[in-house]
UniProtKB/TrEMBL annotation:
GO CC terms: plasma membrane
Localization of this protein: Membrane
Domain of life according to the entry: Bacteria
Keywords: Membrane, Transmembrane, Transmembrane helix
Alphabetical list of CDD domains matching this protein: EcfT
Organism name: Caproiciproducens galactitolivorans
A Pfam family recorded for this sequence: CbiQ
Segments crossing the lipid bilayer: 24-54, 66-85, 105-126, 236-255, 275-291
Name of this protein: Energy-coupling factor transporter transmembrane protein EcfT
Membrane topology label: Multi-pass membrane protein
InterPro entries named in the record: ABC/ECF_trnsptr_transmembrane (IPR003339)
Amino acid sequence: MWAVTGMFQKNSPDAFSSYHPVILFLYFCVVLFFTMFFLHPVLLAISFCSVFLYSVQLNGRKAIRFNIFCMLPVTVIVSLINPLFSHAGVTILFYLNENPVTLESIAFGIVSGGAFITVIIAFSCFNKILTSDKLMYLFGRLIPVLSLMFSMTLRFVPRYKAQIKKIANAQLCIGMDASHGNLLQRVKNGIQILSILITWALENAIETADSMKARGFGLKGRTSFSVFSWKRRDKTLLATEAALLFALLLGLGLGKFESVYFPAIRIAWPEGKSAAFYLAYALFCLLPIIVNRRENIVWNKLKSPD
């Protein structure tokens, strides 16, 4: 397990996140689309392994601990709960309290749990590399209000977490934090801290909105500065994504990714020429890993003496 961490932990900063925001957004859209809407076991395994490795590359051992000790139990719970409530399927394994437990419901529970944790891990990577400035660049001209709200939401947790620490420390200095007094007094102090945080949040939101309005945000014909520009490497990677996406859509149209669980399990497994479509999906999902490994190889060559 730690060998996987060591494979990524000491490398240079994430190179994939330095590419154009359109490329990053397209990558996550495709991965999330195939993960959520096509519960094919092979596709799901590819998606999970890819986003798992990328999350480890971004967050190191912390990601491994979170994925194993938090996400894995979720998969087990979903897999066990689904057969208790869903009794559809033709392959009855046994009866539990006079209710049939079917193979199809167990299989569907396993893939549903896998898809759930894969989406969560993918969104953690999404939140890490698609920062607020990139989202503003992508949607600022099309839907400026929504892009501003989305950008503010992404920074909600870390910023408000830091602010509540400041408020708690200030209240601690005057003996009115949540650790002083009896139980009733602690509850009152906690509510007071929360009230101060909400007041600050509302005031901060109004100030942000007034500031953006004063700068002409959302006006028709408004120009804006952007640090993002299309480079040769961006165009190359975008062309690669487009070619792989075309192959995936072709495979989808030919029914190579079919997966049906009710009333009976019917899955199109990779065999013969159809394996090429699964390979295309694997290459697409592993693009961040491939890009980062390539950048690391080039960087190490530049550092090495002639």
